[in-house]
Amino acid sequence: MTLLKRLGWALAFVIIAALAAVLPAHFLGAGSPPPAAAMISEPATEGGGPPQPANGATAPQANGAAAPQAVAQPAGSPEAIPRQIALPELGVQAPVIEVGLDEAGGVVVPDDVTTVGWYRGSVSLDSLAGSTVIVGHRNSAVAGSGAFDNLEGLEAGDRLRVVDESGTAHRFRVSEVEMVLKEDFASIVREAFGTDGAHRLTLITCGGDFDSAAGSYLSNVIVTATPA
User: How far is CA 70 from the centre of its chain?
Assistant: First the structure.
């Protein structure tokens, strides 16, 4: 091989290596992983009661494992983000706003206990794969019952309805209801927050025993529903 050809191959190798270092992962065929662990931000309480909504004077307390890692950009169309959810079996109809992560890496829950939040790191309602995640408060010592106060009361087969930005209703049927200790939440993060696998709706709130000293519930209620 001539010196010119050897220099040409060396230059090509350098260019390929440089591109690999700067191109986004999806151009190289590698998808972003779901969160390694997830936390639901839960505000502090007063008087040992259930969690109160966060406000400007009270910093939320994050409960759970390590902070979530970055996830892939939500799949689906921008118009298909949740704006309202109805749980007919529980008599619940609540507005949905977009939420992200707090400084500690926890998923933010809306201050208003009657409003729930779509985690913007999850997929849209018209996605063909992945989990559409909606979180909400159980209750508040000040504001009373939250939108997801009796979430564990749902049963397999119950129907849910989520309306998107365009006014389109997306219907789901509950497939599983589970209670997971917050200390064990990391074990189900990939299923709850994953952007792969069959499309599903995941609803999350606090539940289980209440720790008065810590001012928080010890578990999370997780409802999984599939398109109906």
Answer: 12
